[in-house]
Structure formats: structure tokens, C-alpha cells
Give the backbone structure.
Amino acid sequence: MSSTYQANDGPAYERFIGRWTRRLGDAVAEAAPPGGDGAILDVACGTGSMTAALAAISSGRRIVGIDVASAYLDHARTRTDTGAAEFIEMDAQQLLFEDDAFAAAYATIALNFMSEPIAAAREMNRVVQPGGLVAVAGWDFRGGLVYQRMLWDTAAAIEPGAAKVRARIFSHPLAKPDGLGDLWQEAGIVDVTRRSLTIRMDFQNFDDYWLPLLGGQGPVGGYVAALDEATQVRVRDAVREAYLSGDADGPRSLTATAWLVTGRAT
Ligand SMILES: C[S@@+](CC[C@H](N)C(=O)[O-])C[C@H]1O[C@@H](n2cnc3c(N)ncnc32)[C@H](O)[C@@H]1O
């Protein structure tokens, strides 16, 4: 398996996290615009969040999104905000493109879900023209992703399975501050810089926070779906207390910070 990400329902992904990675895509595109005028690659595009952000700032350029999840690609093809972008089923670790085929490449919230991230990084370096932008973004799970902190820290106090999943996600080498930059350098990418970007996840109420977690997508969806009913109710009620934090149910705006690492292809 080249992907560890549970990805079988595009609309469920959109409700769960796609609505927020679309915001992150805009922040990435603004902080690291593609430059040049050639084609742009969105690696592990999922349902097309980053692709849409790129389409919004790059009219007339060829944009290609690739992913291994056919359900997500099907959803991406229904979007109306990705212009003429093409969506192709392909493994990021073995790209079926010629050397130097793209002017720039992006991968958002994806490399930590691959079995061999270094292979994907090397492939991105290979298919981008020398000097072209190679950009990667990944959540700062430990320090910056409030909605998951609330879930895992609360659930871990109730049942030990949550602590295991938290450890797997939060201690992944690419979730650590130097992880993505080190990977870029190992892949031969130069002029590597790191910064952090913060978006806000604006939930209407607790249901708007919780119900999308039941859609079965990614490690969060896999964890919640695997709980027996009684444990799921206990976890939900405890997470609800954390969400409410002493106030009436209603909107909450939670910050979500990602590392953005950029470099130049060689
Ligand atoms: C959290 S989603 C991010 C999707 C999108 N980039 C976004 O920002 O919304 C992670 C994506 O990585 C994809 N993925 C994981 N391993 C992959 C691989 N080896 N090749 C291509 N896509 C992969 C998954 O299918 C999933 O769509």
C-alpha cells in the first residue's frame, strides 16, 4: 500500500477536512506562488483543494492533480472551481511524467500519509524544471491543530486506543518542525525554507465539528468508526464538553497551523 490514508468518500472528505484544506490551499498559493508560466502539479490532490487554489491564481496554465484515491478524484472532477485542471490516478512515489515536465509542484497534507515520502519528494524534484518551485505543506499536528488536539487528548483519557493513534500521527517524523525541510534536503531540493501558516476552522456548533468525523475518512474517521457504540458516545460527550468549554453550544473558531516548506528543484 502506497497510502495509509483511508480515502473512499469524496463528499465525506469535503465535510471532514476538504472545506478547511481549501483555505489552507489559498494561504499556500499566496505565500508560495508558482512563478514561471509552465504547467503546475498538485501531488496527492485529494478532492482538489490545492488545485482549486492554484486555478484561482493561474488562469490559462495547465494544472494537473494526481492521487491514488479514485473516489477523491471522482469528486475533484465535479468541482466548478478548478478550471480546466486534469485529475489523474497515479502514485506520487512513481510519477508517470517526464523529467522537467512542470514549472512547479505542490503537495499539501499528504506526504506523512505515504509509505515512502522520500520517493515522492525525489519524484517531485525530478518532474519540476531546475529552479522551479517545489512546495510541501503539512499540519503542525503537535503544536497547531486544535481540533485534533481536542479529540485525541480527550479520547486518550477514556480509552487507550486513542493514545496510540495520537502517538502515530503526532510523532510522525514529518509532523515535527524539521521533518519536511529535512526531507526536501534529502531529496536534493535546494534553497529550502520553512515558515508556518495558520488558517481558522469555523464550526457552526458541536454537530458541525463532530458529525463530519463520523464519515470514515483518514485516521480520525477510521478511529471513530472503529469504536463500539458505548465508547463512541463516551468520547463524543467528553469531546463535546471540551468544545463547549463552559459556554452554550454555537460557533467556535479553531486555529489550524501548517508547516510550509519550499525549495527549488535541481
Ligand atoms: C489529507 S489528504 C490531502 C488531500 C489534498 N492535498 C488536500 O489538501 O485536501 C491526503 C491525500 O494523500 C493521498 N495519498 C496518500 N498516499 C498517496 C500516494 N502514494 N500517491 C498519491 N496520493 C497519495 C490520499 O489518497 C489523500 O487524498
Observations:
- The pocket of S-adenosylmethionine is lined by residues 2-3, 5, 7, 18, 21, 44-46, 49-50, 67-69, 72, 91-93, 108-110, 113-114, 218 (CB under 6 Å).
- The mean pLDDT is 97.
- The domain at 10-264 is CATH 3.40.50.150 (Rossmann fold).
- The chain has one domain: 10-264.
